[in-house]
Amino acid sequence: MEKKREWTLPAAGPVVEPLICAGDQTLASLTVPEGVEVLGAKAFSQCGELRVLRLPRSLTHIDMKCFEGCPLEDVYYGGSAEQWARLEISPQGSEGLLAARKHFAGGGAVSPLRPREDRGGDLLERLRGILAAGGDGRLHIAAPGLCVDGVLTKPGDMTLLIFPEGATMLIDTGHAPNRSRAMEFLRGIGLRSLDYMAFSHADLDHVSNAGEIGDYLYGPGGGGIRHFWWTGQRFGDIVPAFIKFLRARGTELDLRVRAGRRFWIQGVEVQILGPTEEELLLDPADQEIRNSQSMMMRFALGRASYLTCGDLYAAQEAAAAARCGEALRADVAKSNHHGCFTSNTDGWLDAVGARFVFSCGNDSGSTALVRELRRRGAACFSTGCQGTLLFSLSPGGGCEALTQYDGEMRCIQRVN
Ligand SMILES: [Zn+2]
Question: pLDDT tens digits for 288-340?
């Protein structure tokens, strides 16, 4: 590869692809040309000499970890400070970019941001009412906004399902740095017990609040956890410790939940679509394998359905699509791996065909996914942009979506 101490990215359309120049140790100064709108995830990450950056006024999005590990000192931006403040910058891995000295070309006044209505309290109230009434005949999927001011790591996955007659299922627990928000949500809706708890896989951003949630439900909550579902993935200490905790308290443990299993909960058919027995034999020490061993679950109430598959990567999405075919189709789907560029391929979106797709994180997931979903006419949500989300499915196939903040995909947590 040629030496490029000072380099201007060749103009090639509005989107710079993820990882395009990651790890280039010769790059000291980078100019992104006017016309570029999106810098993809990790595009210039770990460029160990990159100190000077010139960004165009046309830019609108900088995805996760774009400049992570770069010793950035000076950032020259083609617009004004006000325009810079409107850029969507994923908080993940952006510490260096945010801390670098900024030089603004000026000009370009912007209209003030509309203050955003916060309906978080109403959403908690609504969930509390549904729980207190013992359900309302619908299947509800709640994804709480877990962002904590000043915490830039990803907040992880946590979703709560409420079945038609009020049974509850918590899938994953969120990440330890965001524990306070996870607990606030569970307490806020008046949750005192869980009928079911399941972990998609053993990564920290999915399981590291398990102990706290268990302590709460067996302490002040008082109602405990009736059933626990797990694939048996062998990784880390948290899940084994939690299983030990539950076993001592009489929870019914199902530790072989995998492809082919099928359950009925209050008129909802729960199909386990992955992982398979063979996939669980692979070594979960490898990050991609571990994520791709996520529990894949499809919930169907009459004609309405929900699909949640943890952190599947693209290769596993293709394998699952080939194996499951039509069984993947769903009205509402959680994006895989927090909406990240490793996942959610066009082939996967085709196979699922969801009308509503949401990501759990502190950003939009990835700008490419948001754009692709819009192109398909699907509604797109993220807890990082819209806070707490609630999807309510009716047996006739209807689906209602409520969000804490307005529909615009604008990051809540301003980090710059
Ligand atoms: Zn994750």
Answer: 999 999 999 999 999 999 999 999 999 999 999 999 999 999 999 999 999 99
By the 10 Å C-beta count (0-12 exposed, 13-18 middle, 19+ buried), 160 is classed as buried
Q: Are residues 94 and 233 in the same domain?
A: no
Question: Ligand 1 centroid to 364 CA: how many Å?
Answer: 14
Verify that 70 and 139 share a domain, yes or no: no
Distance 101 CA to ligand 1 centre (A): 32
For the chain, the C-alpha Rg in angstroms (whole number) is 22
Taking the centre of ligand 1 as the mean of its atom positions, its distance from the CA of residue 206, in whole angstroms, is 6
* Structural contact between residues 308 and 335, judged by C-beta atoms closer than 8 angstroms: no
CA of 160 to the centre of ligand 1 (A): 16
| Pair (394, 330) in one structural domain | yes
Rounded to the nearest 5 percent, the helix, strand and coil shares of the chain are 25, 25, 50
Structural domain range at position 295: 120-403
How far, in Å, from the CA of 202 to the mean position of ligand 1? 9
Give me the CATH number covering residue 169.
3.60.15.10
Count of alpha carbons within 13 Å of 143, Cβ hemisphere only?
Answer: 30
Determine contact, residues 233/290, Cβ cutoff 8 Å: yes
Residue 244 Cα, ligand 1 centroid: separation in angstroms?
23
- For ligand 1, the distance from its centroid to the CA atom of residue 310, given in whole angstroms, is 7
What separation in Å is there between the alpha carbon of 361 and the centre of ligand 1?
9
- Quote the ligand 1 centre to 412 CA distance (angstroms): 20
SS3 357: strand
**Domain count of the chain?**
2
* One domain for residues 130 and 68: no
Burial class (CB in 10 A: 0-12, 13-18, 19+), 286: exposed
Ligand 1 centre to CA of 294 (Å) is 10
- Confidence tier at 266 by pLDDT (50, 70, 90): very high
